[in-house]
# Entry
Amino acid sequence: MDERKLSSRTVIMAVIIFICISICVLNLINLQVVNGATYLSEAEKVVITTSYTTVNAARGEVFDRNGVPLITNRTVYSLGFKDIRQAEDDVINSTIFELLKLCDLYGAQYNDTLPLSAGAYYLSGASVTNRERFDSYKAYFGWDQDLSGPEVMKKMLSVYGLTNSSYDKDTLRKILGVRYELTLRNVLNIAPYIFCEDVGTQMIAAVQERGFSLVSVIAGSERVYNTKYAAHILGRLGHMTAEDYERLRPLGYDMDELIGKGGIEEAFEEYLHGKRGLLETKTNANGEIVSERYVKEPQAGSDVYLTVDIGMQAVAEDSLKACIEKLRETADSGAGQEAGGGAVVAIDVNTFEVLALASYPTYDLASYSENYNDLVEDPLKPLLNRATQGTYEPGSTFKMVTATAALESGAIKLDTHITDNGVYMYYAPSYTPVCWIHTKTGGTHGTINVIDALKVSCNYFFYESARLTGIQTIDRYAAAFGLGQKTGIEIDESLGILAGPEARQGSGRAWTGGDTIQAGIGQSDNAFTPLQLACYVASVSNGGNRYAAHLMNFITSRSSPRLVQEHQSSLLSKTEISDETYQAVMDGMLEASVSGTASAVFANYPIKVASKTGSAQTSLRFDNAVFVCCAPRENPEIAIVVIVEKGGQGGLIGSVAKDVLDYYCFSPDASAVQPDNSLVR
# Structure
């Protein structure tokens, strides 16, 4: 009985076990055979990979004082790669190959800095930065730094699954170049690799039609220069140097980012650059994007509004160019025919806002890269901003300093008369300088006072005035007016030289009385920038107040109508000038315009203009031409300076100042006096 029960129970258990095993087997067959591919695909989709991409912010734009756009951005499309860490080498390589074919088809340029040729030769022309990156790349794989080109190429082919590839040698090198760039982003902390920048719409359409799973279309921005003028003011964008990177890395910059080079682009880099964003992307095992979100939103850079009136800037540049070309065509040799470069500066007398800042020759920012070699090799140095970096002897335009110093110190009085004898004999026989009119005609200016001396620019009068005043007093007033001093301008500027014993220290040349009288007429060691001369003329014409010159009017946020920063006037120095001295100096300059050295330009001008011409002797046999003025004579508003290298007489270039003044006073497009600050109010 017990045995029969045990036997039946065994059978039942065996049947149950069989059924369970059958069910498991059937389920396994269903999972692995019938629906295996489907379930595998679903399982693979569960594996999520998270990656982070740095998103550059749009750069701020630049406008003139009236809201005219000078530098803006345009949307451009680039091609990059998604996260390729889970992709097979064959897929990556074939994708790159197809992209390369599209580049050939549409004439697109792609980025490749691998310093190896298709023949496995090291490229001697590689930049220092690219060579350093290549060394880091080799170190990443633990390769010997002294490997030959063919040895490196062989190892790279192996790393990227191309050893037995059927691609030809040139194609292999191109594919390796892209694989190198992609790997480099894992080796160095630099921006994601952009395969091809500013891609045309046809190529973008072709990429999208092919449905590349590893390729992404990236929207970005590119600088657009809306004017051919003001190149020296605006500056440009360029790649960072090693020094730039060390300075900017703490601010979150990547090594491959473009930064401002010169001008406003560099001066206001921290405002224009903006703050980068961080995009989180989640993908499944098939490379499909599951979700995207900004961990940190990119913040566009701020917009910079300048004090410059682009209309006046255009007039200044065009007039200067026309004047120089005319001198070359019509002037006598040694009197303007050899005219070279030049500069024009116009500033607001009461605020020192820079209204125009022209340098000749200039260049086009839009074609800077293509023309770079020609620009560098041009003997006239078009890349030099002569308005802020060129230094020139002021010649007779310095005589307002000597007149002010002499009158205020009591060395001369308003009724002091000095007789021009042609040859100044005080330091005879060792030094006997001659008044310019005696050299030119054999005559003299006769007996004159300070107003007449400014009118006719009498050297003899100012020789004697400088001797009586002394170099220390002259230099004190010159420095207070801003000569040989930093102007405060935001872009690069030269300091210049204020002639005197202090400037001579260490030169081995003793300062003499002859140097003092030469300094008194703007010669000797004196050398100032056109902007310094403009600040000097503005200080004289407003009664002695010198403010910091500036190009920035205000800065606004791009994300909201918010004022980020507004220029605050800064008084750099104040020179106490009596009303009698002020009126005498201004009257002398007015007389120069009405019936003196500048009368050919402003004698019949509808507005009273106070001016001064200058012919500055240089180490060459040619004189630089200098012209300065302010207007109107009563309550001056604008100061203008024009300089032409080897331009001869200052009166020959006064027409440039007149053209600028015409724009300021009479052009219906001019609104230079009142900038449109309502743009952010």
In short: Confidence is low (pLDDT under 50) at residues 675-681. The first helix runs from residue 2 to 34.
